[in-house]
Amino acid sequence: MSKVIISPLYDSEVFKMACRQFDQAADAISLPEAIRDRTKWPRRCLAVSLPVKMDNGTVTIFEGYRVQHSISTGPSKGGIRFHENVTIGEVAALAMWMSWKCSLLGLPYGGAKGGVIVNPRDLSPNELEHLSRRYMQEMINFVGPQLDIPAPDLGTNEQIMGWMMDTYSNHVGYIAPAVVTGKPLSLGGSQGRREATGAGVAYLVKAYLQDLNIPINTATVAIQGFGNVGSETAAALAAYGAKIIAISDYTGAIHNPAGIDIANAQEYLRYARVLKDFHGGEPITNEQLLELDCTVLIPAALERVITADNAPRLRCRLLAEAANGPTTPEADRIIDQRGDIELIPDVLCNSGGVVVSYFEWLQNLQNFYWSRDEVLTKLFAMLDRAKASVETQRKKFQFNRRLAALTLGIARVADAKQSRGLFP
């Protein structure tokens, strides 16, 4: 395997993890050295200072980033996260994974990601709007419908995308809905976009349970993370007939072996904003949730939560990665050696969001909009094709499922770079 060399600019554990995954996949397909580094390293990054006038009259400087990993196959695409632990290395890793995800799904995009170091819960609505608009103002020369198309991610939502679209539109002098996706419907958002990632996770879970001959109405599910992705995944799986026995957020987890009323939990969260003190089950920790006896375990929060420490104690049959990078390479090796857990890797499992973002972008460019049923039908067809290609690659080369997905995504990006050549 190639030696992992990390640029000081992106030096972080999560970027090292993404690079290790890349090098393993590149070695597996004998990617030539001449194209390897060009495929791996981000194309460019931007770090910005974001001065915001707070409600008390003071000015606070926030720090923001945008990393565009690849633009070889089309404009770059990726979310913007508002989180207190954002680093440029994390953003670069997420941008890299987005490149492989878009490539695997056959979307005409490269990967990108953005982030701001902030806890959005600490801001008033007025301060949040000012920060969102300032971030877009600083990005205007680097984003656009044919250049880089942001979307919501952890800590951001459709309202923030609406503010960003409005900021960009005011700058260019006309309404430009295709500059971001994940917008409100009234501003050109797509039917089905809000639930797209969770719906895709649930659809793939159902498909893989069928492959394992496990009826979904007998399946128990534990979900770490009950934000947009986790809650929509829970709702979709409950509608399919699965029993959701555990959910969590940053305040802790709730466990109920008899099943949690997901609609009730969503309603509670809408008003309380956190799951703490929700009476739908017994409180446990997020760490305990990961080790529950269940059919399906779904990490739907942050990176690197399945580690070499807890991987031996997992008691699920199917591990579905709704989050990006939730499983470390060391944990991957343990899971492979165990042989009793099937994995749906993140670049496939959570790809529903970027697929429907692509649909939203297409609808904006054409000014022609689809119904929710049309959107979800198209989404599930694309997920079926991607799943089939991963399974074919896995069986052909005897790869594990993550390696199969990564080699497909990486090879397509490398081929595009090779075909375009190197500009003098």
From TrEMBL:
<dbReference type="InterPro" id="IPR006097">
    <property type="entry name" value="Glu/Leu/Phe/Val/Trp_DH_dimer"/>
</dbReference>
<keyword id="KW-0560">Oxidoreductase</keyword>
<dbReference type="InterPro" id="IPR046346">
    <property type="entry name" value="Aminoacid_DH-like_N_sf"/>
</dbReference>
<feature type="binding site">
    <location>
        <position position="357"/>
    </location>
    <ligand>
        <name>substrate</name>
    </ligand>
</feature>
<feature type="active site" description="Proton donor">
    <location>
        <position position="113"/>
    </location>
</feature>
<keyword id="KW-0520">NAD</keyword>
<dbReference type="InterPro" id="IPR033922">
    <property type="entry name" value="NAD_bind_Glu_DH"/>
</dbReference>
<feature type="binding site">
    <location>
        <position position="77"/>
    </location>
    <ligand>
        <name>substrate</name>
    </ligand>
</feature>
<dbReference type="GO" id="GO:0000166">
    <property type="term" value="F:nucleotide binding"/>
</dbReference>
<dbReference type="InterPro" id="IPR006095">
    <property type="entry name" value="Glu/Leu/Phe/Val/Trp_DH"/>
</dbReference>
<protein>
    <recommendedName>
        <fullName>Glutamate dehydrogenase</fullName>
    </recommendedName>
</protein>
<comment type="similarity">
    <text>Belongs to the Glu/Leu/Phe/Val dehydrogenases family.</text>
</comment>
<feature type="site" description="Important for catalysis">
    <location>
        <position position="153"/>
    </location>
</feature>
<feature type="binding site">
    <location>
        <position position="228"/>
    </location>
    <ligand>
        <name>NAD(+)</name>
    </ligand>
</feature>
<dbReference type="InterPro" id="IPR006096">
    <property type="entry name" value="Glu/Leu/Phe/Val/Trp_DH_C"/>
</dbReference>
<dbReference type="GO" id="GO:0004352">
    <property type="term" value="F:glutamate dehydrogenase (NAD+) activity"/>
</dbReference>
<dbReference type="InterPro" id="IPR036291">
    <property type="entry name" value="NAD(P)-bd_dom_sf"/>
</dbReference>
<keyword id="KW-0547">Nucleotide-binding</keyword>
<dbReference type="GO" id="GO:0006538">
    <property type="term" value="P:L-glutamate catabolic process"/>
</dbReference>
<dbReference type="Pfam" id="PF00208">
    <property type="entry name" value="ELFV_dehydrog"/>
</dbReference>
<feature type="domain" description="Glutamate/phenylalanine/leucine/valine/L-tryptophan dehydrogenase C-terminal">
    <location>
        <begin position="190"/>
        <end position="421"/>
    </location>
</feature>
<feature type="binding site">
    <location>
        <position position="101"/>
    </location>
    <ligand>
        <name>substrate</name>
    </ligand>
</feature>
<dbReference type="InterPro" id="IPR014362">
    <property type="entry name" value="Glu_DH"/>
</dbReference>
<dbReference type="Pfam" id="PF02812">
    <property type="entry name" value="ELFV_dehydrog_N"/>
</dbReference>
<feature type="binding site">
    <location>
        <position position="197"/>
    </location>
    <ligand>
        <name>NAD(+)</name>
    </ligand>
</feature>
<dbReference type="InterPro" id="IPR033524">
    <property type="entry name" value="Glu/Leu/Phe/Val_DH_AS"/>
</dbReference>
